């Protein structure tokens, strides 16, 4: 095994400085898989390998790069969706009959949770399926039942989900 050269060492430091930090698009699981695969392709030997060079960060940033230009458009539509959901909540809360109010508020509450999940996912939402789980839908239905159709309590639930 050859000793590492100054050039190889400098390159590995430069690469890891350029390609490190938080992941933009990949999940931790995906990053670990890519790291393991690239380590098999470019292992560490007498020179830095894929792991030391930060290849997983390079791949992550390259994949996310083209999506970043859509971020302002995405945020604009997310804002419009939120305003639409708020209008739906105002309409539902204005309904006099509590049973009808409780029934009409469900889509807005599920929409608020979906919007929150989309915001958490960020740009990766364009590559993933974002969906409110059945378990969460059941919790939302339970919160509606507990609120007994109270407009104030339903609005508080909406703000919490958003």
Properties at a glance:
162 residues; 2 domains; 8 helices; 73% helix; elongated
Topology record:
Elements lengths: L5 H13 L9 H14 L8 H4 L1 H14 L2 H24 L3 H24 L12 H14 L3 H11 L1
Helix pairs in contact: 2-4, 5-6, 5-8, 6-7, 6-8, 7-8
Would you tell me the structural class of the helices and strands? mainly alpha
Strand content: under 5%
The main pleated sheet reads as: none
Mean pLDDT over all positions: 81
End-to-end separation in angstroms reads 57 Å
Based on DSSP secondary structure assignment, what is the total number of beta strands? Answer: 0
Radius of gyration from CA coordinates: 24 Å
Low-confidence stretches: none
Please report the number of helical segments.
Answer: 8
- SSE pattern: HHHHHHHH
Approximately how much helix is present in the residues?
Answer: over 70%
What global shape is seen?
elongated
Number of domains: 2
Q: Would you give an account of this structure?
A:
The protein is an all-alpha fold. The chain folds into 2 domains: 6-67, no CATH class; 71-161, no CATH class. The protein is 73% helix and 0% strand. It has helices at 6-18, 28-41, 50-53, 55-68, 71-94, 98-121, 134-147, 151-161. The radius of gyration is 24 Å and the shape is elongated.
Briefly say what this structure is.
With 162 residues, the protein is mainly alpha-helical.
């Amino acid at each position: 095994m050859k000793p590492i050269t100054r050039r190889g060492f400098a390159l590995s430091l430069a690469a890891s400085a350029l390609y490190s930090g938080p992941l933009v698009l990949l999940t931790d699981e995906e990053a670990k898989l890519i790291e393991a695969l690239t380590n098999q392709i470019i292992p560490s030997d007498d020179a830095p390998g894929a792991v030391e060079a930060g290849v997983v960060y390079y791949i992550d940033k390259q994949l996310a790069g083209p999506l970043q230009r859509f971020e302002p458009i995405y945020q604009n539509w997310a804002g419009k969706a939120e305003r639409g959901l708020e209008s739906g909540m105002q309409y539902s809360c204005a309904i006099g009959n509590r049973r009808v109010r409780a029934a009409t508020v469900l889509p807005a509450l599920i929409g608020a949770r979906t919007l929150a999940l989309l915001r958490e996912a960020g740009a990766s939402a364009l590559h993933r399926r974002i969906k409110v789980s059945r378990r969460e839908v059941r919790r939302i239905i339970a919160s509606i039942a507990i609120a007994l159709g109270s407009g104030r309590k339903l609005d508080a639930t909406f703000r919490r989900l958003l």
